[in-house]
Amino acid sequence: MRTVLCMIAFMASMFTACTNDTEAIASEAGTSEEAARKANENNAFTTFKVTIANIGAETTYPTVLSPGVFVVQKKNTMPLFMAWEADYGEGVEGIAEDGNPSMLHESLSNAANPDLRSFGVFNTPVGADMPSPITPGNSYEFYVTAKHNDYLNFVTMYAQSNDIFIAPEAMGIALFDDNKMPISGDVSMYLSLWDAGTEVNEEPGIGPNQAPRQSAPNTGEDENGVVRMVDDGFTYPEIADFIQVTVTPME
Fold first, then answer.
1. Cα of 8 vs its chain's centroid, Å
2. Where are the alpha helices (DSSP H) in 167-211?
3. DSSP, res 208
4. What is the pLDDT along the chain (251 residues), one digit of tens a residue?
5. Cα 37 from Cα 199, distance rounded (Å)
6. Which architecture, in CATH terms, is 45-249?
7. Which of 117, 108, 109, 107 is CA-nearest to residue 151?
8. Across the strands, what pairs with 142?
9. Model pTM?
10. How far apart are CA 190 and CA 187, in angstroms?
């Protein structure tokens, strides 16, 4: 009898060990599946349509927005500019002073910058056949593809100025929220007027060395300053009164 009882106990212990091993394996499998799911979420790309609309009024000196450059940049990077530092010399000046995105686009094309997911030029208004600035009532559209921890940035000239550009903060606009869901809607509240610090400012809409009135590109007195939010004593319209940027995830 004792032998029989020992055998039963031994078999019971083996069953328990097998059960525990099976539960451990199942737990590990579940953990692996969860890790794989999270990895897939982190690597899932979404395509967004970005619209930059000139919503300003037709006045004597209407607000005009220039062609520009957009980038999808990685988290905590500043590939276009850095506040309170001199312009990088890679082409933001060309947009800020003359509304010309070609130098910045070329610089980005040649740099192989690991901080960038993608980049491009917006220069042709919606419904138009040729590149041009946008006047009130017109807009640019472009598409970007991004994943969690990617940020949108862009630069366009405030044309009635010497070297003022419109852009988000240097680190850009997060394209996904804290729940890793793509954002959607108006992001104009993240924009600011920036002074490139490359040309001395004149009164906006009047200065002879501003793009609509200058005799040639890259005219005006050099400033040798730093990039900063506009604070030059002149009066500028509120961002919300002349530009609206919307981001729409595509299904």
1. 68
2. none
3. T
4. 444 333 334 333 433 333 444 444 344 445 555 544 544 555 689 999 999 999 998 876 789 999 999 999 999 999 999 999 999 999 999 999 999 999 999 999 998 899 999 999 999 999 999 999 999 999 999 999 999 999 999 999 999 999 999 999 999 999 999 999 999 999 999 999 999 999 999 999 999 999 989 988 888 999 999 999 999 999 999 999 999 999 999 97
5. 51
6. Sandwich (2.60)
7. 117
8. 50
9. 0.82
10. 6
CA angle 186, 192, 193 (to 5 degrees): 135
Q: What angle do CA 155, 157, 160 make, to 5 degrees?
A: 160
Distance in angstroms (rounded) separating the CA atoms of residues 248 and 251? 10
For residue 156, give the amino acid letter. T
Structure tokens at 84: 């309170």
Residue 143 CB partners (closer than 8 Å, separation 6+)? 47, 48, 49, 50, 250
What tokens appear for 155 in the block? 């630069």
Supply φ then ψ for residue 31, to 5 degrees: -65, -40
Joined tokens for residue 47: 């395509």
